[in-house]
Specification:
Structural class: mainly alpha
Low-confidence stretches: none
Distance between the termini: 51 Å
Helix content: 55-70%
Shape: globular
Largest sheet: none
Strand content: under 5%
Number of helices: 5
Number of strands: 0
Length: 97
């Protein structure tokens, strides 16, 4: 039998790609590490659509755990203002909690 073609990897959404570019700029400015900036940017962008936050973070390659609660906790650790010096880190934590 002929090998079946593999489905194409899902294309990153434009919003996720935009957030990645903003996060790279934040990291280049020394605000925080790229994964931290990305978590903050995604949380802020999806504030009005909380149901999409986790899927966008997974699509961007941020930590995904075995369940939703553990995933949120891992992402919140990235954004925590004590660990992340991004100016919007506190707001991102409020969105995620």
């Amino acid at each position: 039998p002929e090998p079946q073609p593999q489905p194409a990897a899902p294309r990153k959404s434009f919003i996720v790609a935009e957030c990645e570019a903003e996060a790279r700029a934040d990291a280049a400015q020394g605000l925080c590490e790229f994964p931290q900036a990305l978590a903050v940017r995604l949380a802020l962008r999806f504030e009005k659509r909380p149901a999409d936050i986790l899927s966008s973070m997974e699509q961007a390659g941020l930590p995904a755990a075995k369940d939703q609660r553990s995933t949120v906790k891992a992402i919140m650790r990235l954004c925590h203002p004590d660990k992340c010096k991004h100016p919007e880190a506190k707001r991102a934590m409020q969105i995620l909690s």
